[in-house]
């Protein structure tokens, strides 16, 4: 009357993680050979390849606060506060959102509609 629905007979059970933390193998992961080919290197293991990627990202993808402050012409403390606000999902003081900017540009281009601007 009832079907046996063990992981072997339950459709798609291989994709359901086991309650003990085991379960399906991630088929989207990259092999060491794929990482070596993609990065154009010859790493001895995946950990070395991933460390190299992280180090490169830290060097290239994360400019320092001082570099940002210099580029923006602002004090480093102000840049730090702005970055903290962004990380907390808030708009930093003195910064316009994209929507606010678009609204400003619209009314700059259409001064005859100024009276319709929300207060």
Produce the secondary structure layout.
Blueprint lengths: L31 H8 L6 H16 L3 H8 L3 H12 L10 H12 L10
Describe what you observe in this structure.
This protein has helices at residues 32-39, 46-61, 65-72, 76-87, 98-109. With 119 residues, the protein is mainly α. Helix 3 crosses helix 4. The longest helix has 16 residues, at 46-61. The chain is elongated, with a radius of gyration of 26 Å. The protein starts with 31 loop residues before the first helix and ends in a 10-residue tail after the last helix. The relative contact order is 0.05. Residues 1-5 and 9-14 have low confidence and may be disordered.
Which shape, going by the Cα principal axes? elongated
Strand content: under 5%
| Residue-averaged pLDDT | 76
Instruction: Give the number of DSSP strands.
Output: 0
Structural class: mainly alpha
Rg, alpha carbons:
26 Å
* Alpha plus pi helix count: 5
- Percent of residues in helices comes to 40-55%
Taking the sheet with the most strands, its summary is:
none
Regions with pLDDT < 50 over 5+ consecutive residues?
Answer: 1-5, 9-14
Through-space gap between termini: 69 Å
Q: Helices and strands, in N-to-C order?
A: HHHHH
């Amino acid at each position: 009357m009832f079907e046996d629905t063990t992981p072997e007979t339950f459709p798609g059970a291989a994709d359901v993680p086991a309650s003990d933390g085991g379960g399906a193998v991630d088929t989207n992961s990259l092999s060491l050979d794929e990482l070596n080919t993609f990065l154009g290197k010859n790493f001895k293991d995946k950990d070395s390849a991933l460390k190299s990627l992280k180090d490169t990202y830290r060097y290239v993808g994360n400019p320092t606060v001082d570099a940002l402050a210099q580029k923006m012409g602002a004090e480093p403390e102000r840049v730090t506060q702005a970055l903290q606000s962004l990380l907390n999902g808030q708009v930093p003081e003195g910064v316009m959102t994209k929507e606010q900017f678009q609204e400003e540009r619209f009314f700059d281009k259409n001064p005859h509609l100024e009276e319709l601007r929300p207060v």
